[in-house]
Amino acid sequence: MTNVTEIFGSLVFDDRTMEARLPKETYKALQNTMKSGKHLDPSVATVVANAMKDWAIEKGATHFTHWFQPMTGITAEKHDSFISPKAGGKVIMEFSGKELIQGEPDASSFPSGGLRATFEARGYTAWDATSYAFIKDGVLCIPTVFCSYGGEALDQKTALLRSMEAINRQALRVLKLFGNTAVQSVKTTVGPEQEYFLVDKAMYDQRKDLIYTGRTLFGARAPKGQELDDHYFGAIKPRVSAFMKDLNEELWKLGILAKTEHNEVAPAQHEMAPIFSTTNIAADHNQLTMEIMQKVAKRHDLVCLLHEKPFAGVNGSGKHNNWSISTDTGVNLLEPGETPYENAQFLLLLCAVIKAVDEYQDLLRISVASAGNDHRLGANEAPPAIVSMFLGSDLSEILEAIEEDKKYDAKQKDVMRIGVHTLPRFPKDTTDRNRTSPFAFTGNKFEFRMLGSSASISCANTVLNTAVAEELRQFADELEGAADFETSLHDLIKRTIAEHKRIIFNGDGYDDSWVKEAEKRGLYNLKSTPDALAHMMDEKNVTLFSSHNVLTPTELAARHEVRLENYCKVVNIEALTMLDMARKDILPAMSAYSAQLAEDCEKKVALYEDADCSYERETVKNLCALIGAAHRGVRKLEADLLATKSITDMAELADAYKTTILDDMRTLRISVDGMETIASAKAWPYPTYGDLLFGVR
Ligand code: ADP
Ligand code: MG
Question: How confident is the model at residue 556, as a pLDDT?
């Protein structure tokens, strides 16, 4: 039996380890830096580096790395060993304060969206002391941010940290208005629920589409899908269970609070939810979780698919981003309070979120946009591409009472007044039912459900933090100058509800009528990544990020470029993979197979002139038609891909991929899947959907 409490965090240079291993003064100085976000004194860094190195070597580490999150969406690391030559051909193990604080990786091969001129290829990494160092595969990993020499952010984390500072600044102003002066810092917290698929490695290895793109580009439906709902929360199969046990242990060693695991809706689909933590740590941990899931799967001869839509016809995978705001005094600010005053504060924060989601719908949609996630959002299995908020009936009624100066319930003597009336306790059950909402209040936090399973959570949380920071700024500006705080507060909340209630929708987000209703309300319906990205550089968005010092206009433009480029590249790889599979495997296999059938038929007729060859004849006929159609599909896709080469404008190129290329791909798939349906299983060159989805036992 594993002793969980013993292994938990055993590979992390966490608070416990720091306290035990650092001189008291150093420990205190480091704590200060971590709490306040102030710069670390170089002399402190030297002592910390030494202690870290000794600890890491005891745990078997030989190398260190600055671990960072470039705009590729995955993590990057370059290992350096601790060794340093000494006289007599010997080495000693060294790690300096400078090496801890700063690194200089060659940045030229990471996407920069034009930020990093080619003559200045170096970037630098700087220690993020708020996230603990850890050991992975014998390497001491130092969580870092990654910037260009000019100081522009080249990674996901810098913006996320800046957005946390922004919301901290503004939330403190608001809390002060409510007399909360003991609070020194406010942080957002996140618990990301991670969905994934597990498939057998031997089968995966035979599918070029899975290998190159992470999703199946062809594949006829299996006789069974998810229609019986017999997978969700079902008994976990032994191989999967062994994987989960192993995964939990690896995550626990890294101090990741893996908590819940279960089977998801689609066959072969599963979920892992951690206990929430501070946002930047949750982001680091989620990156690690995705990496470890893939590594542990291999040990079990499985492959973990993190793609948003690995299989057509069954649900794809997302990542529910549970988000809240809490104080260093341990108060969750999205928890309705006990007293009228606490309630008033809660309602103001709630209004900030409502206003933020309404005014920055486009940015929230953009923050989750990717070629992979486009297959999910709006496919009636995940939230629609329209951003809206679910508050539940209880809370909605309260807001309505405030807006319309009505009584909230019969027991109340007069109309709902903020700061006077207490809110009722919301039973959690009534708030957590709507699974179709992209952004749902779940009692004491919001669940943003549009994130794709493979994406870093940094981008979505950067947008969320910054947008809410902006609303809090506006609220603080207004209320700080108010003569009568309570009246102004009431008016502000009332006005905000009236102006932004269009974003609140408690109905069924999968229903077609919602699309029309949303249009009437003037909400965005940004169906694809190129559609969404077209709004990224809108003036209000540029202003939002620059005014809160989260991203300069140049940094934002660079991100825009990187996102468009990534979209084009992903679709291009998918198209090329389809061509390769069709040309090299599928068409030759089907041509040979139909010829074989024809030959069989001839042989039968030679033996018995009137032999019934209807199966062979019809199949050959249908296959020939499909082979012809597939061949034309290949030619068209190829020609259209060639035509994209002449498009120089990136947005135009993304549009071409979205319309022409994806259309061609869909057409080609139809004829190929048609062939798979009628051809012999033996003749088909790849493992089928049935093999992949039901193959792990
Ligand atoms: P369920 O959705 O299964 O009812 P919970 O709602 O309790 O479970 O939790 C779902 C996720 O939300 C978990 O990852 C949990 O840690 C996270 N969560 C709970 N409270 C908060 C909070 N205050 N801030 C951020 N995430 C939270
Ligand atoms: Mg939940």
Answer: 96
Q: Which of 513, 528, 551 finishes a domain?
A: 551
Check: CB of residue 55 under 8 Å from CB of residue 64.
Answer: no
- State what percent of residues in the chain have pLDDT above 70: 95
- Which ligand minimizes its atom distance to the CA of 443? 1
Same domain flag for 573 and 639: yes
Q: How far is CA 21 from the centre of its chain?
A: 36
Tell me the average pLDDT of the chain: 92
Flag whether 475 is in a domain.
Answer: yes
For ligand 1, is residue 286 a contact (CB within 6 Å)?
A: no
> Strand pairing of 139-148 and 63-67?
parallel
Residue nearest (by alpha carbon) to ligand 1 atom 11: 191
Query: How many structural domains is the chain composed of?
Result: 3
Which DSSP string corresponds to 242-292? HHHHHHHHHHHHTT--EEEEEE-SSTTEEEEEEPPEEHHHHHHHHHHHHHH
- Residue 377 Cβ < 6 Å to ligand 1: no
3-state percent helix, strand, coil for the chain, nearest multiple of 5 = 50, 15, 35
Q: What is the pTM of this model?
A: 0.94
Q: How far is the CA of 258 from the centre of ligand 2 (A)?
A: 14
- Among 389, 391, 395, 390, smallest CA distance to 425 is for 395
Distance of alpha carbon 525 from alpha carbon 172, whole angstroms: 34
Residue 442 CB less than 6 A away from ligand 1? yes
Q: Considering the domain boundaries, does residue 558 fall inside one?
A: no
Residue 525 CA to ligand 2 centre (angstroms): 25
Q: How far, in Å, is the centroid of ligand 1 from the Cα of 272?
A: 12
Q: What distance in angstroms lies between residue 270's CA and the mean position of ligand 2's atoms? A: 15
pLDDT single digits (tens) 11-66: 999 999 999 999 999 999 888 887 776 777 888 899 999 999 999 999 999 999 99
Our mutation pick for probing the ligand 1 site, out of 271, 275, 445, counting the most ligand atoms within 8 A of Cβ, is 445
Does ligand 1 have an atom closer than 6 angstroms to the CB of 188? Answer: no
Specify whether the CB–CB gap between 637 and 578 falls below 8 A.
yes
- Angle 403-408-411 from CA coordinates, rounded to 5°: 155
Whether 409 and 521 map to the same domain: the answer is yes
Give SS3 for 595. Answer: helix
- CA 75 to ligand 2 centroid distance, Å: 26
With bands split at pLDDT 50, 70 and 90, how would you rate the model's confidence at 428?
Answer: low
DSSP state, 183?
Answer: -
Q: Are strands 83-86 and 318-327 parallel, antiparallel or unpaired?
A: unpaired
Instruction: Answer yes or no: do 140 and 167 share one domain.
Output: no
State the CATH number of the domain containing residue 336: 3.30.590.10
Q: Which residues contact 593 (CB under 8 A, 6 or more apart)?
A: 623, 679, 680, 683
- Rounded Cα–Cα distance for residues 23 and 674 (Å): 70
Check pocket membership of 189 for ligand 1, CB cut-off 6 A. yes
Pairwise CA distance, residues 188 & 165, whole Å? 10
| Distance from chain centroid for Cα 222 | 29
Mean pLDDT in residue range 420-448: 76
Write out the residue range of the structural domain in which residue 20 sits: 4-154
What would the mean pLDDT of 232-250 be, rounded to a whole number?
Answer: 92
CA dist., res. 52 & res. 660, Å (int): 54
pLDDT > 90? residue 414: no
Whether the CB-CB separation of 340 and 419 falls below 8 Å is answered with yes
Same domain, 406 and 427: yes
Alpha carbon of 690 to ligand 2 centroid (Å) = 30
Is 634 a residue whose pLDDT tops 70?
yes
